Amino acid sequence: MTQSFHGDLRVLAGATAGHTARSVDRRSSDPIDQLGRRMNQVCTQAVDSLQIAAALEAAGINDRYAQQHMGVATVFDLAETLFQRIPLRASGAETSTARRDTQLREISHGVLFALPALFYPVMAAQVAPSVAAFAIALAVIAGWSWSQLVVRVSYLMQASGSASAAAVWLRYSALAGIGLVSVIAALTTKNASRPDALILIATAQMAYHMALTITIHYRREGLLVICLLPGLAAGLLYLIAPGLLPVTAVSTLVAASLIVALGVAASLPGETGRSARLRPPSFKELRDAAPFLLYGLLCALLVTFDSLRLGDWIGSAAFGLTIAPLVLSMGVLEWQLRSFRERVAVTLAQSTSTHEMSRRVWALFAAALVRYALVLAGLSAVSLYIIQSHHENVPFLTTVLLANWVLGCTFYIGFSLISQNRISLVTVFAAAALLVHLLNLPASLAYDSLVPTEATSYLLACLVFAMFLLSVARSVLCEVRNYSYDLQVTRQIGTR
Amino acid sequence: MKVGLATEGTYPFHGGGVSVWCDQLVTGLHEHAFDVMAVCATGSEPVTWKLPRNVVGLHRLPLWLPVKSSRRGSRAARQEFAAAHRRFALALVDPDEAGAAGSFLDALRTMFDLRDLDLDAQQLSNESLGRLIDAWQEAARRRPGSRMQGVPMTFADALTATETISHFLRPLTYVPPKVDLVHAVSNGLAGLVGIVTKWTHGVPFALTEHGLYLRERYLNYLSVDESFPVRSLIMNFFRLLAAAVYGTADVIRPGSQYNQRWELRSGAEPERLQTIHNGVDPAHFTPDVGEPSVPTIAWLGRIDPLKDLHTLIHSFGRVVEEIPTARLRLFGGVPAGNEVYYRSCVQLVRDLRLARSVTFEGTVDSPATAYEAGHVFVLSSVSEGFPFTVIEAMASGKATVATDVGGVSEAVGDTGVIVQAGDTAAMARACIELLHDHDLRRSLGSRARSRVEERFSLQQSLAAYRDTYQGLLAIRPGRADATETAEHEASTSRRRVTRWTAQDAA
């Protein structure tokens, strides 16, 4: 009566009794040597002689057999002899990094985040710029924070073994988020000139965000792009040649594409989600996901606060130019973060000293941060060139662009810390940064500057956010225990 | 008397021999109340056994649920942990070093005393992982030429092994229910629950071993794709834990004499060992129901590589060459995960052109059906403890052909034929002889039935455990003051009591 054996007895294949020797063997005819050859795989991997004894017994060799055929008293003696005679052949997990298609998918996410910009001109054409700005800001804030909650809860459900419940949750919570934004937009449009347009713009932006969240979750971003192609083409055409197509036709194409994209995204869980009922998240899951919601909300507020303060800022082309590098680089950030963690996993599989390990992990982090910062700087340089060529308020725009570069680097540090289970800490720092921005400290200094204080306040907030995160980064990032998942991901079977 | 019955991966969630035995025990000893403390994976496993009324509580101990705790503890507590972890690490990397088993048990006790700390976080800290690596390097230097010298332990190894071991140490942080004695039905994690219950309430601790927990872990880890240091640390943990359980248990009741070899080698004291064989109720098995019309060999069990059905099928191929009308009937289900092995058996039957003679019968409501279906019962396993199937077949008056593994030869004695495991020819010869020789077969079957009535009846087995319990209460090892202190600690402690989810089984 054995309790539970889940091992693979293939490692014992050929070990039993040796009744079927086939070819002439010129090696040692000593029966123990012969047995060792038959059980080579076991003997070269065994951690001690008891493991060989266990394998011998599982192969049907007992004390009587050991005495009669091997000339030793017990299986334990036989195992000890084999253990001493046969050297270890070390084997185990080997690490490798992700394939190129994973990198390309990650990099594409930045472009996907930026795609709605193609819809903004046609949206802005239908309402006053301030209305469009408010609608977009509302949707960005809601989309950023809600998607954090939705995805976190979904992961928690999956982790608890409820893949089907997670699929259903993802679908319905995404739809609920769109409904929520519509309601908030409706409640805040009492004094707007075109309340219907405001609701539509906010809802459309949120619908895109939710569709993107779901497709990224299921790694089906290509499907989203295919569904959106007609709307994207119409939006691009409107941007290049505004008079070529009527505004209503462009709007209709954009709306239709979004509806199709959302429908396809909502059906993605497929069979997994179809058979399951909606399970509301547990209190524990909500408690775990709440900091993510708050973090998304604070970051969105930090980025959009000036558009709320300055009216039509967010819908303007100038705003687009300052924020575009940050949005476009989000995919690179994702890639660099994953790459950093993979490299850490490889480092952990090589390091045998705490000091050396800490030094190498920090160097990897710094290198990845520099790589990302350079990419973001390159994109910002393009924006700066366009700003200097086409816009008047260059000092203000340049300061905001610089602030967004700092914020991008800060996001990288923040995401690194969040991946080390420090969401609460990062959220507190984000709140502090927002507070700095709200206080508009440069305004109280009353100094003369070419740059409006809103921009310097934003830059100061981003710098404060970055400094806070950097102050804890080294100690947190060198905590080995948080790389367990990365070790599993990067491991492949092979010889060390 | 209330008995805490500690199980792992068996009763009351899963089938198998140990669960059958647990059911026999709690049902048979109806004068005692049982609190079942079941180590399980997630705690959501459904109960598959009908619990009798005297099972007054079922406490689930999930190993793999995430534990979130932010308690860092005092500086002194953390320093105490660090000192204990150093002893733990040194023992773990080199269990053959003198005093390693004692250091390990001592470290376990300290961790148990410090269970208010977040033990997972403490074990997985960089300092603890570094300590483990240092201990490995020290041991490698101390033992030139050892296997560990050629393979350095990395942080990845230390993290992987420690994460696994931290789950295995979860029982240290749980509060067991108040019982009069604790009875672990296996070594390993159920044994650790036994230790914790003894430490908490100062009650006697009985250990029963049917299979050999350590031996099975060794076999499990033969095919685990981890580096040598990871496999080594985890196996050393099980080895040291086995020794700790043997050292702490007041009595050890192996299910067969055969088990004693491993137990003694692992540090069990001979005077604490006394074999209690499994028993069956002979009244449940009728020896005189006749025999099938065609020569038939019966087998009963779960379809599993350990049962070595390939050897049985190959042997049967030889039997058919001699007795073309012979049949082989295989009774038993296919556990999840063994589908590939089942398919390999079916394919082997096809390859040997035995499809008309061999049938896979699936599960049966009553095992007696399987025994009555054959002239001869065969057990072809490569690993066993003291299998119920053999003594049930014997109680049914069947002659057996069985492999010489575990306690099988103790069970069969001279009432059947014992062959070397994996020896196809010997197994075939024995089957042919018994199928041909009616008198010999019936004589062996009759003697087998008598042997079960005399030595392996359920009543005898239950009586032995009844005596064990009474004897333990008489020697009650816990000092009164220690017991009171432990109880006081347990009642005032802020431990994660919610992890034990009690369910009134009655």
In which range does the helix fraction of chain B lie? 40-55%
Q: pLDDT below 50 for ≥5 consecutive residues: which ranges of chain A?
A: 1-11, 16-23, 492-496
Output the strand order for the largest sheet of chain B: 6-5-4-1-2-3-13
Total count of strands of chain B: 13
Question: What's the gyration radius of chain A in Å?
Answer: 30 Å
Q: Tally the helices of chain A.
A: 22
Largest interface: A-B, 63 and 79 residues
| DSSP strand content of chain B | 5-15%
Give the topology, please.
The complex is a heterodimer of chains A (496) and B (506).
Chain A (H helix, E strand, L loop, with lengths): L30 H8 L1 H6 L3 H10 L4 H8 L4 H11 L6 E4 L4 H15 L5 H5 L4 H31 L3 H25 L7 H23 L3 H20 L6 H20 L3 H5 L8 H28 L6 H12 L1 H19 L5 H37 L3 H25 L4 H17 L1 H5 L7 H25 L6 H7 E4 L2
Antiparallel strand pairs in A: 1-2
Helix pairs in contact in A: 3-5, 6-15, 6-16, 8-9, 8-10, 8-14, 9-10, 10-11, 10-12, 11-12, 14-19, 15-17, 15-18, 16-17, 16-18, 16-22, 17-18, 18-21, 19-21
Chain B lengths: L1 E7 L8 H12 L4 E8 L14 E8 L12 H19 L6 H14 L5 H5 L2 H17 L12 H14 L12 E4 L4 H13 L3 E5 L3 H8 L7 H21 L2 E4 L2 H9 L30 E5 L8 H14 L4 E5 L7 H13 L6 E5 L4 H6 L3 E4 L8 H8 L3 E5 L4 H5 L3 E4 L4 H13 L1 H18 L2 H18 L4 H13 L8 E3 L3
Parallel strand pairs in B: 1-2, 1-4, 2-3, 4-5, 5-6, 7-8, 7-10, 8-9, 10-11, 11-12
Antiparallel strand pairs in B: 3-13
Helix pairs in contact in B: 2-3, 2-5, 3-9, 5-6, 6-9, 7-9, 8-9, 11-12, 11-16, 14-17
Q: Which properties best describe this structure?
A:
heterodimer, A: 496 residues, mainly alpha, two-stranded antiparallel ribbon, 2% strand, disordered N terminus, B: 506 residues, alpha/beta, seven-stranded mixed beta sheet, 19 helices, 13 strands
Short description:
The complex is a heterodimer of chains A (496) and B (506). Chain A is an all-alpha fold and 496 residues long.
